[in-house]
Amino acid sequence: MRSNVFKILTLASLIAFLSSCGFEKSGITGWDYNTEVNGGFQKMPFEEQETGPNLVLIEGGTYTMGRVLDDVMYDWNTIPRRVTVSSFYMDETEISNFNWLEYLYWTTRVYSADYPEVYKKALPDTLVWRSKLGYNEPYVDYYLRHPAYRDYPVVGVNWLQCNDFCNWRTDRVNEYILIREGVLEHNVNQINEDNFNTEAYFKGQYESGKAIDGLPDLNPNREFRNVKMEDGILLPKYRLPTEAEWEYAAYALIGNTIGERIREEKMWPWSGHAVRNPEERYIGMMMANYKRGRGDNMGIAGRLNDNADVTAPVYSYWPNDFGLYNMAGNVSEWVMDVYRPLSNDDRDDFRAFRGNVYKTLETDDEGYVAEKDSLGHLVYRDVTEGDNIDRRNYRSSDNINFLDGDYESATSAVNWSEEPEDDEKLESQYMYDYSIYSMINDKARVYKGASWKDRAYYMNPGTRRFLDEKQRTDYIGFRCAMDRVGSPVGFGGQ
What we know:
By secondary structure, the chain is mostly loops. Helices cover 15% and strands 11% of the residues. It has a domain at 58-181 and 233-355 and 448-494: Alpha-Beta Complex (paralog of FGE (formylglycine-generating enzyme)), CATH 3.90.1580.10. Strand 8 and strand 9 form a beta hairpin. The radius of gyration is 25 Å and the shape is globular.
């Protein structure tokens, strides 16, 4: 791990802290915290958010999103707009084949006996390598599983599979943290619904690994308790980055600023206007893995300038000023956003994102959180207008088409400002009804950056393309992100 890690107090030191003779008092009631005498309300020690494996901190800020110097493809979908991105964490590399094989192994170990479809659902499509006029069968057979390719970026995964991987990674990292801190005992025989799930654990629905019993509880009615979000021990969810986050991280303008002034705008994730390294030691070597022209994937024998015919290992070339590798070339990358041609012009200027579908936990007849499903996951449902009857900031669960595809942006001039009764969509009125007015629908997801198959134009971070969320290719991979909670960089320095 190349980033600072703020260690959480061990269980022994925690017990010592809670049992110490000195108590912090409430600023509003005057009662002592962390004492059984006063009922046991606890204030846990907390320094900073721990940095998860393979993540680096991306210090947030303001930048111009969507800028492309020359729109040579005439997409007209990169309208410049100034936005602010909050600090977040991002993988320093793409997710590799070996990372994905670890995921596949876990799904096999936990689900294969009763739910083999879970493993099948997680499998990458290796047939994406086939070409009708090219001999690519070696990649079909070897790319995913042969150790020669273990450090290469995984491909053949769709947007939905990448989200499933992020959810799995969240649970495995948080399970490891609880075991590391002596709060949870690892159960290597977790099967089906009896596997660690962060949300189920928070709701008290994870039953395995209780030999250690959890944290000491100062509530006089209980001896031990589960770790809570308020303790700050467990990490936020892994997820795909938003388009705004990915583009911001790729530009890495942190290396081009003096005070609050950007010294030089970037065309690529590195400084300058050339795609070859200008340093004397590496002069002439390619800064990224891309296709220079028809029939030229890697240069001439004896001088393979990017040393990659298809993809390259995830730590290839030079990192940008945030420490991120391959933010140009190698593989394009999925991001969270639903694609709209004018998304850069019709989104918020703070944490810009299109694709919100708000959900809430399913409850039983008594109002308690429903039992987890057979795979160990809590069940969610879309929020309803009845749930939000008193809200002013939103009513609808699905906000994908807000101001760009909903009734307010209808293609018909008839009743364009009036929402149809019962939210019934008339095909003649909506611009994103697939195959009627557009090939774009609510399942079209943005992917960013160039790949080994692309020309240099797409290495500009401002370029954007889309593909259906179920589609898989030999040139799109991904990396994970995580929210930074609290201060942007830490009050004590990072």
